[in-house]
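Async update (no meeting this week)

Hi team, since we skipped the sync, here's where things stand on the single-chain job. The sequence we agreed to prioritize is pasted below, unchanged from the tracker. I ran it this morning and attached the output directly underneath so nobody has to dig for it. Comments welcome in thread, and please keep replies under the output.
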Amino acid sequence: MQYATITGWGKCVPPATLTNHDLATFIDTSDEWIKPRTGISQRHISHVDTSEMASVAAKRALAAAGIDGSEIDLIILASASPDTLIPNIASTVQANIGASCGAFDINAACSGFLYGLGLGSSQIKSGQSQKVLVIGAERLSFYLDWSRRETAVLFGDGAGAVVLEATDKVEGVLGYELNNDPAGRDILKAGFGTAMDRFSAASLDFYIEFNGQEIFKRAIAGMGKLSTAVLEKCAVNKDDVDWVIPHQANERIIDTLISRMKIPKEKAVVNIANYGNTSAATIPIAICDALEKGMIKPNQTILSCAFGAGLTSAAALIKWGDRVTPISTSDAELPPCEQTGIELVSKAVKHFCSDK
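Output:
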């Protein structure tokens, strides 16, 4: 039986940042209000399209795996904020890395990367593919109404990617669980799509909106349930888990989830302070950060879980392989950014905040 192991990893975050103190210059908030409630200190704001960040992350993941884009059999790109709906932006990444294979986008919101990881591993286990590129990439700043404090403080932009390769060793993605709770589909949403009245200017006033209390409750329940299910499926005790890499939506959610699962807090990888919630990109970015810091060791067991709009939820159990350092590095970079985070959002801030 083949398994799908992670052999390459890469992230891309735009250089411009928007700190909590920056936000306080145009909405009624402060670092003292944001940090204790969310764990967030800053977020990155992109000056380029989602596909550009995804392409840089992909190139870095390919270099880490020591393979060329032409060797990839399938590209799965998770995003709720693509450049275009037609065509999919997986095709843009495909062109940028020189791949010749199937390529598609999926939208499972913040659970998207784990959805893609599960689908990619199944392709490999079935023998359909040998090398799969899975990407999570978001430009959520596009959706924000900067006058709405409850969402303006939470989200950021970025991308992360991994390469999955077939192996005969019992490692990589040991198991995964996916679920959706449609009863909660309206508590986290953005009104962008074909339901819009394209002839009304008011339809362009779309933005992320959510019910924070309901999300908190359902997120913990969904992630906890699927995490327990995937551990049972793989016959792994939670005490044997070395790291938990959860979706980085809110540090309070992470703390509560870990506490209820009776897993020590020090086993949780938490990097939300530097990025905010980058939706489908949070988990691959966190994987990259944990590897860069030397946290992940060979053959360790990692539990990852997420929740997102839909309300989607997902969990995966991963046994890391022997290698925790890149085979090679890529010189791929985003084009230079000449603006600060405040300057990048200034047009949107003027639009949303001037009359409020």
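Quick observations from my side:
The first helix runs from residue 20 to 23.
The chain has a mean pLDDT of 95.
Reply here if anything looks off.
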